[in-house]
Design a protein that fits this description.
Layout lengths: L1 H15 L3 E5 L6 H10 L7 E2 L4 H6 L3 E4 L6 E5 L7 H8 L6 E2 L11
Helix pairs in contact: 1-4
Length: 111
């Protein structure tokens, strides 16, 4: 997972000049609802997803902000952590074990 986070942050940096990781979050929705909404937008097509909380990231020194005009998408900014293997591993530790993506009826879709 650490490598995936690093690639995700690099993609965000290339597009915005800011080190951040792309994620989905909503205080008023369940995992199932968030996954369905994202999948309906043609995103979050992975067979498995990982779950964490905005609070866990904020308590670990990351800034989490909604992506403008892209609900329920958020950006997790690296702040003082900077891009490094240590940062990716620290972020990965904040997620629970992967679970099947509830938006997919056929778990054989894209990983």
């Amino acid at each position: 997972m650490a490598n995936t986070l690093g690639m995700n942050a690099q993609t965000t940096f290339d597009a915005t000049d800011q080190w951040a990781v792309s994620a989905f979050a909503a205080t008023d929705r369940t995992l199932e609802e968030i996954a369905r909404d994202a999948h309906a937008q043609g995103r979050l097509n992975h067979s498995k997803v990982t779950v964490s909380t905005v609070g866990a990231f904020r308590q670990s020194g990351f800034r989490v902000e909604p992506t403008p005009d892209d609900y329920p998408h958020v950006d997790i900014f690296l702040m003082a952590h900077g891009p490094s293997q240590v940062t990716w591993e620290a972020m990965a530790a904040l997620f629970q074990a992967p679970v099947p993506n509830p938006a997919l009826s056929n778990q054989g879709e894209t990983d």
